[in-house]
């Protein structure tokens, strides 16, 4: 199994984009990036973000503190260059085994008006669970440095068979969607990345026999990207009789009115630990951690999100790892999609397999491999992919580059993609765990 991105202590510097150093080749642009630690004293930081328009603070997710099973959200203040002593929020009772803990954070697009934000964490109460819970900041929302710990409202829970492949990313599409199905009220939908639940080959207790959770689209939300409508005010609830489901289903989700779970946006994923939307274009990037053979980066164009009848992308796991058949997994490769509108199944995605192919995959090796060579002469390798983001800051020579890395090989990369194919690639070298762009865009 590949090394977990959470299995060793994390460096505190890995909480902002300005953490690497290397001259950059002409194919990507001309310039130099310099490593700079901006904060220390963190406990297992795994994610950093900020509300839309907030350029003065970074909100940092601490997976859990050493003294107990409590996940924390911390704030770094740019003006004072300090980590605030009082946490923004503490969440007790999170599982701390293997890859579990407090894993994800997303602010509602209307956070300044409603104070709502969402967290993704593993729960210790009863059966192993992944929970998405909405909390509310103290007033005034836009500037408050604390949140109300009693304000939690459960949005969704997903049973988690094992302690790994938890996924953990949540985020809102920065581009509001109105396909004529929301009566002129565009929505920024909430997207959730779930892992297959753990176990080798997506085949263990709690995994659908012969199919795997990633390919099971009926009563199974594991190994998926989910899409939920939280409402313009953050209070959408189409399941009033169920206190544990506080959301609505986007009416144009792929399986609405068809066989398959209404919450599913895409499927066939092993562990989409980190995903991101291009905040300018709305393109979607998925970094899916591989098993024993390949690591892969998946891409979905913004046009898919504005289609009046979007199709559910199938990325192939457990039958495919990267662009090859998964070693040791037999059976028949399922069709990419159910037949619809008179078109046979499996004809909706590029590639001979009928599945959506990654825009980039690379071998799991401990030493540089000649298989994929970057434009600046390095070789892309590793065995635990960590996704990043598309740069939209003030450095023009980096505009549109997607940054990502590999936790195991400690390497950091950037690529350009024109919507069809890769056009440039470059390596930077540094140890890291997570990547995001500072809200001000300068870094």
Description:
This protein is mainly beta and 443 residues long. The protein has one domain (43-368): Neuraminidase, CATH 2.120.10.30. It is 1% helix and 30% strand. The chain has one helix at residues 111-114; strands at 22-23, 32-33, 45-49, 57-62, 70-77, 82-83, 89-92, 102-107, 116-123, 129-137, 147-159, 170-172, 190-193, 224-228, 264-267, 274-277, 284-288, 294-300, 313-314, 320-321, 324-325, 360-363, 385-390, 402-406, 411-417, 422-429. The strands form seven sheets. Strands 3, 4, 5, 6 and 7 form a five-stranded antiparallel β-sheet that branches. The chain has a five-stranded mixed β-sheet with strand order 12-13-14-15-19, with no helix packed on it. The longest helix has 4 residues, at 111-114. It is globular, with a radius of gyration of 20 Å. Mean pLDDT is 82; it is low at 1-26, 335-353 and 439-443.
What best-fitting shape do the alpha-carbon axes yield?
Answer: globular
Radius of gyration: 20 Å
**Largest sheet, if any?**
5 strands, antiparallel
Number of helices: 1
Low-pLDDT stretches:
1-26, 335-353, 439-443
Q: Class by helix and strand content? A: mainly beta
Q: Note the gap between the termini.
A: 34 Å
Write the H/E string, N to C.
EEEEEEEEHEEEEEEEEEEEEEEEEEE
- Counted beta strands: 26
CATH superfamily: TolB, C-terminal domain
The overall average pLDDT, rounded, is: 82
For this structure, the CATH topology is: Neuraminidase
